[in-house]
Amino acid sequence: MLYGLSLLAGIVLLTLGGEGLIRGAVAGAKRLGVSPLFTGLVIVGFGTSSPELVVSIHAAMNQQPDIAIGNVVGSNIGNILLILGLCALICPLTTQPQALKRDGLVMMLATGLFILLAFNGSLGRFDAAVLLASLAAYLVWAYRSESGQHSPSAELHTAEAEEVTKLPSSTLFIVVALTAGLALLIGGSQLLLYGAVGIAQAMGISEAVIGLTIVAIGTSLPELAVSVIAALRRHADVAVGNILGSNIFNLLGILGVSAFLQPLPLVERMASFDQWVMLGASALLIAFLYTGLRLSRGEGLLLLVGYIAYLTASFTVIS
């Protein structure tokens, strides 16, 4: 019971902390005169992944590499199979060809790069530098491809920034929001990891499985809630772009930072099973989207069934 409450409390604090950090950072960017496009693309993009980032860094520094890597791999699998599957069942999802060609390609390349770098069984500091350099290159490409034009993705990133900036931009607000957000993220990550590891030990489940499932779902719950609400309001056209961007940030940014701070060995089950599920889910999503630039309800159902099968295999067959 204690571990379960700790897990739930950690998820709540991570959600609140991520929201506070985003709003403080965006308000600060507005005060410094940073463009809405750059703010939406980089600051909001990183901010929505801040729960995953803090949890993976905390796990890496606590010598829990299975959770640090599993959180990212599991989040990427869940983003595609669970979140997009549910959203497509509610409302068929559309995507823009420009965003699909760029972000879909980069997501596949980032997934392949992770598998290649982890082929020797670990992610070291050189691997981290490659991942972070790749993220920087992607951000430059994305900014240049959207700057100065009225593409749907550019409008989306600008709208994201403008939506968050409908708040005070005073120095006091910025400092309080950033400080409180960071404190909640740190406290939430500690509670989440304490509860998750405690549950794993009590149930005799490996930390890898916990990281790939419970922790990954917990850190992705804010994204799940936002995506489902958007689908219910028939604004689901933004869901695909958000998921593609999130998966890119997770692989290149979160794993890059975590492995740079603490080299991460890759557990055998992730090398032989989970990373290939992530690659397969990514390829399946891109294949679905290229056939009509939409994700239908039938395809969403297939994704959701795939996630249920993945969870079943994780807890029964491949533990």
UniProtKB/TrEMBL annotation:
Topology relative to the lipid bilayer, per the entry, is:
Multi-pass membrane protein
Superkingdom to which the source organism belongs: Bacteria
Q: Looking at the keywords, is Transmembrane present? A: yes
Localization (cell): Membrane
Per UniProt, the keywords (alphabetical) are: Membrane, Transmembrane, Transmembrane helix
Coiled-coil positions are: none
Q: Which residues cross the membrane?
A: 67-91, 103-120, 172-197, 209-232, 244-264, 276-293, 300-318
Q: Which residues form the Sodium/calcium exchanger membrane region domain?
A: 5-143, 175-315
The cross-references to PANTHER family, in alphabetical order and at most eight, read:
INNER MEMBRANE PROTEIN YRBG, SODIUM/POTASSIUM/CALCIUM EXCHANGER
Provide the protein name: Calcium/sodium antiporter
The scientific name of the source species is Halomonas citrativorans
